[in-house]
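Re: Re: ligand-bound prediction request (bumping)

Still looking for help on this. To restate: I need the protein modeled with uridine-5'-diphosphate bound, output as structure tokens. Inputs repeated here so nobody has to scroll up.
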Amino acid sequence: MRVVLTGAAGFIGSHLAERYITDGHVVLGIDSVLTGSQRNLKTVSSNTRFSFLERDVSGTWDEIERRVSQESIDLVLHFASPASPVDYLAFPIETMLVNSLGTKNAIEFASRRKARFVFASTSETYGDPLEHPQRESYWGNVNPTGPRSCYDESKRFGEALTAAYRRVRGTDTRIIRIFNTYGPRMRRDDGRVVPNFITQALESKPLTIYGDGSQTRSFCYIDDLVEGIVRCAASTELSGKIVNIGNPEEYTIREFAEIVCEIAGVPLEATACQLPVDDPSRRCPDISRAKAILGWQPRVGLREGLGRTLAYFRANP
Ligand code: UDP
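Reply:
Sorry for the wait, this slipped through. Here it is.
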């Protein structure tokens, strides 16, 4: 299979590239390296089935088209986008463009080349959810102009555009709503709770718990997510559908802080920090659809996954 993967140098993108290469496929990875890094592609960069193009997919696709003009393309995975709150707050316009113009460019390309299209959406489309846990049928509770709106609303636009291509052009689409994911290759400074707490625990610094720490998240290990994405892309039954991929084990942020410290072998010390504006108070995926259609569910428990992630952070100071 020939795969075009946008966002290949990012945390999730690089793991996906590695998986498709390991499975014997040919991958063209594209990334603007705004928030990603080519260092993430070390394990695949010397493989002859992998090639890389540094490009912003919101701009022209001429060079991408030229690279693969003679080849049939089977699968387009659109994973390019800043994804941590700190990153998308730093690059709100780039975030909106990659999820709007970037999605348009990627799905137009997939549609013309008769390739399957997978859009990487997010649990952020549910906003601060009033339904719990979140099923794919839930429409969400999003502030359309708040600081997180650049991400939430542009991903919602990307979903709407994907649905429109499906209706009008019959494009073979799938939308994956990705919940909080963690693991090796997360950027130490991406501002998310996992790298922040791990770094602070390893440096024996107080953990920055935002608000009272009663807000919840559900953390999925990267290998589980990648398995879910690969199954989703391969499933014919999921064509035209949306699927949640995430781990339904829900923790308060305070509980999560305690587990990180336990695994790092340090006592929990916390420093009071303000809760960011519009920070969702609860988040947990309902994964019945993924289980029923893909036979997928997470395998790696939080303590095991955090142990592996901590080891990565220790080895890559
Ligand atoms: N959070 C925290 N301390 C940090 C970073 C994040 O308490 O140093 C909280 C944040 O307020 C949110 C949760 O952890 O409630 C997850 O935040 P993250 O930025 O990882 O991702 P989000 O789920 O908000 O996209």
